[in-house]
Amino acid sequence: MGLFERSLPDVQLFKIADLAVNWGRASSLWPMTFGIACCAIEMMAVGAATFDMDRFGAGAFRATPRQADLMIVAGTVNAKMALIVKRLWDQMPEPKYVMAMGACTVGGGPYWKHGYNVVKGIDKFVPVDVHVPGCPPRPEAIIEGVRFLQRKIMAKRVLAKGAEGTPDFTGISVSPGTVGILEPTVRMPAPPAAPAAEGARA
Amino acid sequence: MTAAEALEQLRKDGQGDGVELFAGPKDAALLVRRERVKAVLRHLRDARAFGCDLLVMVTGTHLTEKKDAKGVLVRAAGFEVIWHLRSVTQHHLLAVKCRLPIDDPRVDSVADLWPAADWHERETWDLVGITFTGHPNLRRILLPEGWEGHPLRKDYVYPKEFGGINLEVDAPWPTP
């Protein structure tokens, strides 16, 4: 569903314009500086030098929801906190995205059964774009979640008509057919080769 | 100073009325009648022999009815409030307990004896629902205002929603 669908004709130019708009949005995701529990420590690690989420354009943590695009909900959300998370979400300008980070925000986590005040997944009150499971997730998992979100954004329609494209979620790398800009810039090192058997050496 | 020594000293000081020894599974404690709680705790703080100048913890428990194998009532349902007192100068730890009836969980506040008791008593009221009479500001401290019930009671029913936020689970946990 395009933003100006009724006023603009359906021309190929808008599809190209969409590409530029989406590229801009996906390549400068600004997360909000907002941590609730232990997952926030991993989120900080992603922002720091070792993992450096800024390589993917998502490292500019903003201290206000007014300047943020991405809300990484990092930690257990209880009923008291859910009202605040909802308010922060309402304060963010469009377009805005949510990443549910960690088992608690995905589905209640360890508080699933006996957490009398824990919200069993933040998708009960905000629309979640990416779920990143883990307790807490590794920094690589958060980076993968950001990459997934970027691919999802690239498939959006802003000016052009028609249904939204299907984001390509296969594997960690974007298929070359979509947009070359989102080619992965980092590859994980290959695992060390297994030592040869004793018999083979002799 | 063990609990038995403390009880002996209390009796020597003329404060032993309504105090008995509670032999727990691990450590002994002083079991104090409800009317005597504040006087005994004040004495434990002020008397030189005890000198309990630090209130470590106030907490409460909901005790269910307990019967032995023959069906004889061992313990009636009720509440229990526990104070942990420490003497920094004399290096000892004392536990004081008080049993409250199930239909009237009230006990005197000690927030004017130890300022630390203020928040501990608020928490105990918030989660267990024990009323501390004389507390300056007895309202919820952990759960949000407007919450119904006290979650650490055994008969607590989990809420379905709060403030428009759904607190239910979507589906039961899959059985392996």
Short structural summary:
The complex is a heterodimer of chains A (202) and B (176). With 202 residues, chain A is mostly helical.
Helix percent of chain A reads 25-40%
* Helix-strand makeup class of chain B: alpha+beta
Cα-to-Cα separation, first versus last residue of chain B: 52 Å
**What's the end-to-end separation of chain A, in Å?**
66 Å
CATH topology of chain B: Beta Polymerase, domain 2
CATH architecture of chain B: 2-Layer Sandwich
Helix content of chain B: 10-25%
Features:
heterodimer; A: 202 residues; mainly alpha; Rossmann fold; three-stranded parallel β-sheet; 3 strands; globular; B: 176 residues; alpha+beta; Beta Polymerase, domain 2; five-stranded mixed β-sheet; two-stranded antiparallel sheet; 3 helices; 18% helix
Structure description:
- The complex is a heterodimer of chains A (202) and B (176).
- Chain A is mainly α.
- Chain A has one domain (12-181): 3-Layer(aba) Sandwich (Rossmann fold), CATH 3.40.50.
- Chain A is built from 6 helices and 3 strands.
- Chain B is 18% helix and 31% strand.
- Chain B has 3 helices and 11 strands, in the order αββαββββββαβββ.
- In chain B, a hairpin with a 4-residue loop joins strand 6 (78-87) and strand 7.
- Classes of the chains: A mainly alpha (202), B alpha+beta (176).
Topology:
The complex is a heterodimer of chains A (202) and B (176).
Chain A lengths: L11 H16 L11 H9 L22 E5 L4 H13 L5 E5 L1 H5 L22 E3 L6 H16 L43 H4 L1
Parallel strand pairs in A: 1-2, 2-3
Chain B lengths: L2 H10 L6 E5 L4 E5 L4 H10 L7 E10 L2 E2 L5 E3 L2 E10 L4 E10 L4 E3 L8 H11 L3 E3 L27 E2 L2 E2 L10
Parallel strand pairs in B: 2-7, 8-9
Antiparallel strand pairs in B: 1-2, 3-6, 4-5, 6-7, 10-11
